[in-house]
Write a structure and sequence with these properties.
single chain, alpha+beta, VC0467-like, 6 helices, disordered N terminus, globular
Length: 208
């Protein structure tokens, strides 16, 4: 699956639309899959081979970033209290139902690891190695980051079909929607970014 910084607006997905790398998917109210109800997903990859994204508005329950650093042996328990404040501010999200035991860090482009960091679009990158966790623990990580457990994936043509069936809307991403602390407000904010009043949107809204 391709993850890159190619301009998605110039690519044809085979169904008359465009590839949506670097954009946000916003679930319609009538979303049948409860795992994606009111989900806002940052699309890391979208091509003729399928799509992959990270849910950015579903916090992981009962787990913190410092806890995970200890569980993964990035730092010993006794050093947990000495972590930089920036590490404590990294939020842990339920990134999606695929590979929920694996961590994926979405982060700002001021941090890059050769052969590990994948630039996506608009200053947002993806890194899925322990090296970025070690850097954050040492205070040398990116200025903005979220850690997602798992991801959302689509087979070839599946996402295009779901969009055509009124499953998703989409809009350009911005850093506040990807990295912002108020996860509960992101769904309504994303709808407003599209130009939709959340209170007026019904399950019978038109095609995205």
């Amino acid at each position: 699956m391709r993850i890159g910084n190619q301009d998605s607006r110039d690519l044809d997905d085979g169904s008359g639309g465009t590839f949506l790398d670097g954009q946000l998917l916003v679930a319609m109210p009538g979303m049948r899959d409860e795992r994606f109800a009111r989900a806002v997903i940052y699309l890391c990859a979208h091509s003729s081979e399928g799509a992959m994204g990270i849910i950015v508005n579903q916090p992981a329950s009962n787990v913190s970033f410092p806890d995970l650093l200890v569980q993964l042996d990035v730092v010993p328990q006794e050093q947990r209290i000495h972590l930089p404040s920036s590490a404590g501010g990294v939020r842990v999200l339920k990134g999606g139902p695929v590979e929920t035991g694996r961590g994926f860090v979405l982060h700002s482009a001021d941090f890059f690891i050769q052969d590990s960091t994948l630039p996506i679009d608009d200053g947002i990158c993806l890194t899925a190695t322990l090296d970025i966790l070690r850097a954050i623990a040492a205070g040398d990580g990116p200025s903005s980051a979220v850690l997602a457990l798992g991801y959302a994936g689509w087979a070839p043509g599946q996402l295009e079909n779901e969009i055509q069936q009124n499953g998703w809307l989409h809009c350009p991403a911005d850093r506040s929607l990807v990295f912002g602390a108020d996860t509960a407000a992101k769904y309504d904010r994303a709808l407003r970014k599209i130009g939709i009043d959340p209170g007026m949107l019904s399950p019978d809204a038109g095609h995205a």
